[in-house]
Amino acid sequence: MAVERTLSIIKPDATERNLTGSIIAKLEEAGLRVVAQKRVRWTKEQAEKFYEVHKERPFYGELVAFMTSGPIVVQVLEGENAVLKNREVMGATDPAKADAGTIRKEFAENIERNSVHGSDSLDNAAAEIALNFDEHEIVG
Ligand code: ADP
Ligand code: MG
């Protein structure tokens, strides 16, 4: 295993319900270190660019509207096997299918308002981190 970095986002449904701290606690308990973090509100253009891979999916427009509907917390997480570890602690996209104890099982409202984003591969993590952070903002 190797030390990796991955991009995490606490989504508007979670910031709205004051779940930022509870979610960070779950990430830290899983051994993931928060090495960069900022609370921002995305423009439509930023959300469209971030989710460009889903452009052809039927939920793309709604997803962009959701992700710009309120503040989000964008983070870089660091740790052994961080990409997969974060996906495990997040749980399945649909909270109804997520394992007990995962962030989405405990906190998500539905398949769209599912509280967190996490990069799905090391390559995508690097691209998503570069899109959201300058190197000097990441303090490992
Ligand atoms: P994940 O976030 O688990 O990697 P995807 O990359 O497939 O999931 O989808 C990106 C995001 O789009 C999801 O986290 C969720 O917010 C939203 N989404 C996915 N599938 C649906 C759906 N069927 N209906 C509405 N929103 C969806
Ligand atoms: Mg995804």
Structural summary, described in words:
Helix content is 39%, strand content 20%. It is α+β, with helices and mostly antiparallel strands and 140 residues long. It has a 4-stranded antiparallel sheet with strand order 2-3-1-4. The mean pLDDT is 98. Adenosine-5'-diphosphate (ADP) is lined by residues 54, 59, 63, 93, 111-112, 114, 117, 120.
Key traits:
140 residues, alpha+beta, 4 strands, binds adenosine-5'-diphosphate, binds magnesium ion
Write the layout of secondary structure elements.
Elements: E1 3-10, H1 12-16, H2 20-29, E2 33-40, H3 44-50, H4 60-67, E3 72-80, H5 82-90, H6 103-107, E4 116-118, H7 122-132
The protein binds adenosine-5'-diphosphate and magnesium ion (MG).
Q: Structural class per helix/strand content?
A: alpha+beta
Number of DSSP strand runs: 4
Contiguous runs where pLDDT drops below 50 for at least 5 residues: none
- N- and C-termini, Cα separation: 18 Å
Name the shape in a single word. Answer: globular
Q: What oligomeric state is this?
A: single chain
Rg over alpha carbons = 14 Å
Ligands in the model, by name, code or SMILES, are: adenosine-5'-diphosphate, magnesium ion
Strand order in the sheet with the most strands: 2-3-1-4
Would you tell me the overall average pLDDT? 98
Largest sheet: 4 strands, antiparallel
- What is the helical fraction, as a range of percent? 25-40%
